[in-house]
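Reviewers asked in the last cycle whether our approach scales beyond single polypeptides. To address this, we selected a multi-component target totalling 263 residues and predicted its structure end to end. The input consisted of the following lines:
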Amino acid sequence: MSADCILFEPGDGVARITLNRPDVLNSFDKAMAARLIEVLARVADDGSLRSVYLTGAGRAFCAGQDLAEAVAREGRGVVDFAEHLRRTYNPIVRAIRALPKPVVCGVNGAAAGAGANIALACDLVIASADAKFIQAFINIGLVPDSGGSWFLPRLVGTARATALMMLGQPLSATDAAAMGLIYKVVPAGTLEEGGYQVARQLAAQPTQALALIKKLLDRTGQNTLEQQLELEAESQAAAGRSADYAEGVRAFLEKRKPAFAGS
Ligand code: T3D
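The resulting structure, written as structure tokens, was:
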């Protein structure tokens, strides 16, 4: 497996992960999917890494499944799409959602198919003004995967999700932000300031509280108000036991900036 298909650059408490197959718009082959799963597991285990910045090399974020590899698979006569998803995209989406650290996706260009939905699985999506989002599956006779049919209706409502999934047309970053699909758009060429710097800021914030917020957001769609109130109570109890809470309050009373250690 070529390690270079995913660049992993830790620094400033941020795990910078770059999808790196620019010649094919960072589309996923089996090796890149496996390497991303491996790198996400490493980030989960490393307490010094307190946020993730996921982006793409070159002019695109990710064009989804490598269609040349998909055709080669068919040529070998073993086309088990379900098994392919279970071994590649599903573990990636699960790893992003289960990571107890915020994941910022810096969408630097086209995000299509599984590439679009892996972006939507991240906690904060920040896109360059020249980026676009495409539920490209229908254009080749497939259905959305990588959590798209779960994330899209929750983010933009059923009417818009239906149109995006059924029509398969590109959605500009500006329109994506306007309809609440992503957090925000930054001018082309400024993702480093607008995207990476957000990941850097998050890496200096109270990591445990951020992980608890992520869990609260993940549960809110399924929970009743009663259940969510109880989860908030339990989460606050956990946050209140953290060293970062003690530091936050001490810093406030001492009128200084808090230095959160992430513990
Ligand atoms: O198979 C399974 O197991 C099921 C899983 C499915 C998951 C999925 O993600 S299905 C969806 C797969 N993705 C797509 O259908 C998107 C295909 N790509 C595009 O529609 C366009 O490339 C874009 C809209 C993303 C960008 O268009 P554009 O005009 O900016 O670039 P381009 O010229 O189309 O692409 C540039 C190169 O990248 C080109 O190669 P070349 O001609 O320079 O040698 C193109 O073939 C290559 N490329 C782009 N996307 C893919 C790809 N090569 C392989 N797989 C791709 N997905």
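The chain has a mean pLDDT of 96. We regard this as preliminary and will revisit it once experimental data from Aim 1 are available.
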